[in-house]
Design a protein that fits this description.
Oligomer: single chain
Shape: globular
Strand content: 15-25%
Distance between the termini: 37 Å
CATH superfamily of the largest domain: P-loop containing nucleotide triphosphate hydrolases
CATH architecture of the largest domain: 3-Layer(aba) Sandwich
Number of domains: 3
Helix content: 25-40%
CATH class of the largest domain: Alpha Beta
Number of helices: 19
Number of strands: 18
CATH topology of the largest domain: Rossmann fold
């Protein structure tokens, strides 16, 4: 379907990939992974034809159509929402425009009639007469209400624009679908809808995502950008991750016999093949794994940060009591009547259909803004650490080295002590002297996590921890919270993160909360909770 031959890309002395050869076959879903800066998004732009490589070719099979998820949220601001989706099928949209222009001519001629007839024939072959209802159905499925379909894109909020652009890419059954971070800003129900859509999609999908649950659900192959090479592996993300870790352990076990290694690998493949029968892509994935060669499994060069949260003191029984808490912004109620108490060891996923509500909730608990109503009280033994979704204000003062930046939050000013926390987050050697004003989004989050670890808190509050982090850091963060003995309040769009950490769900809404001792999968599957959620959000426009 798409053939990549001898592809090379270099910026100065830095080589992103060299002589890469990849084939993307029909009917498969490929998850493109790599550490931050490895070139994932650049590779996707080259595939889409939006960027040129230094060398090599990308060839789309003749007669096939490619669709790409647009990243510019303002490109279509003056276009009606439904038309934005229709524009996803560029050939059909072009015919529609040409057709309409001919019919609008005041001096309609016989030649115009012949041309219009030809266009109508092409339009019908593309199923054009069902285009508008199909586009409307896509929009509704992805959470855009019918009343929004006739609005201009500029009248939608950022979250809605993301959904419309996603519907645009999905529209018209493209032969190749290129999606760069499609789950960003989508709530968990919409992500599930997208997973189901892609599972039923019969053509080729190439996707970059930091959402491991999403990659595990939809991917048949993993395309790994590592060592400046691009390699394709059969299976989903978890299979790639665990197999690469197994290969690394075997590589380090110098004395282990070759036959023992082979048997260990074969048992691993057999276990995953059996597990695949339980997945939503059961048949195809199991068949692929059964054909897998042991030589296809190789160790990764990835480095995983050492995220370890320890309690400086154990918490008492009184953790946090929230009473009648409410917050409104610009005359809009974000949440109201929030009442709950935390128990020792609770790991609570705080969710909402509005991300502004969850962020405001954490800001209130950390005394950054005042609540509109209500109050809260921490227990006397409680020490807290907070990771906000927006952290620019922590880096807005005069630029300083990372050692000096972290030192300002530490009672122990010793440089080796400070370096230890930075080193855990992969800031080693001369990197600790990097200036705070030149950090990337991911580097800032890693600094903030160093700051959190240093506090040795017994209550962690974490707002969207996976933002800007690569899969290695997300995995390490996820595992750290599973192993953490203290209490956690956290919000994330990462399904796997939420499912493996949270033992309690608190959903904050404009009319109160839903508080359940359940995992997120149990919570979303409960019919009574579904009805309760519908009622609590009824009549409230969600603006995030």
């Amino acid at each position: 379907m798409i053939t990549v031959q001898d592809l090379s890309l270099q910026f100065g002395k830095r080589i992103l990939f060299d002589d890469a050869n990849v084939f993307f076959g029909a009917g498969n879903c490929y998850g493109v992974i790599g550490a931050n800066g490895a070139g994932k998004s650049t590779f996707m732009k080259i595939l889409a034809g939006d960027k040129d490589a230094n060398k090599g070719t990308v060839t789309l099979e003749p007669g096939k159509r490619m669709a790409v998820l647009k990243q510019d949220h303002f490109e279509f601001d003056e276009v009606k929402v439904l038309d934005v989706v229709l524009m996803g099928h560029t050939d059909m949209w072009s015919i529609m425009q040409e057709k309409d222009a001919i019919y609008a001519k005041p001096d309609f001629s016989d030649e115009d009639g012949i041309k219009a007839s030809e266009l109508e024939e092409k339009f019908a072959e593309m199923d054009g007469w069902n285009a508008e209802p199909n586009a409307a159905s896509l929009l509704s499925g992805i959470g855009i209400a019918e009343s929004e379909h006739v609005k201009l894109m500029k009248d939608l909020n950022g979250n809605q624009k993301v959904r419309v652009l996603l519907a645009q890419a999905l529209f018209g059954n493209p032969d190749v679908l290129i999606l760069d971070e499609p789950t960003n800003d989508l709530d968990i129900e919409t992500v599930t809808w997208l997973e189901d859509f892609l599972l039923n999609f019969q053509n080729t999908v190439i996707v970059v995502s930091h959402d491991r649950h999403f990659l595990d659900t939809v991917c048949t192959h993993i395309v790994d950008i590592d060592f400046a090479k691009i390699n394709t592996f059969t299976g989903n993300y978890t299979f790639w991750y665990e197999s690469s870790q197994l290969a690394l352990r075997q590589k380090l076990a110098a004395n282990k016999k070759t036959e023992d290694k082979r048997q260990e690998m074969q048992a691993f493949i057999s276990r995953f093949s059996a597990n695949a029968s339980k997945s939503r892509q059961a048949t195809s994935r199991r068949k692929m794994l059964e054909k897998l060669s042991l030589e296809d499994i190789k160790p990764s060069s990835r480095k995983y940060p050492g995220i370890i949260f320890e309690q400086g003191r154990e918490a008492g029984d009184q953790i946090l009591k929230v009473s009648d808490l409410g917050y409104s912004s610009h005359d809009k109620v974000l949440f109201n009547d929030v009442n709950f108490s935390l128990n020792k060891g609770d790991k609570v996923a705080v969710i909402s259909k509005n991300s502004l509500a969850t962020s405001a909730f954490y800001q209130i608990l950390n005394n950054e803004i005042k609540p509109t109503t209500g109050e809260f009280e921490f227990g006397q033994t409680i020490t807290t650490a907070f990771l906000p979704v927006e952290n620019d204000k922590y880096f807005s003062d005069e630029p300083m080295s990372l050692v000096d930046w972290l030192r300002q939050y530490s009672e122990n000013k010793d440089e080796q002590y400070i370096r230890g926390f930075l080193g855990k987050m992969l800031f080693g050697g001369e990197e600790v002297h990097k200036m705070s004003n030149v950090l990337s989004g991911g580097e800032k989050v890693r600094c903030m996590v160093s700051r959190m670890m240093m506090k040795s808190a017994n209550l962690l509050m974490i707002d969207e921890p996976t933002s800007h982090l690569d899969l290695e850091s997300i995995t390490a963060f996820n595992n750290s919270l599973i192993n953490y003995a203290g209490t956690v309040l956290f919000t994330t769009h990462d399904h796997h993160f939420m499912q493996t950490v949270a033992n309690r769900i608190i959903e904050i809404t404009p009319t109160g909360i839903i508080d359940k001792l359940k995992t997120i999968d149990e919570y979303l599957a409960d019919p009574a909770i579904k009805q309760q959620r519908k009622e609590m959000y009824a009549g409230h426009m969600i603006g995030a």
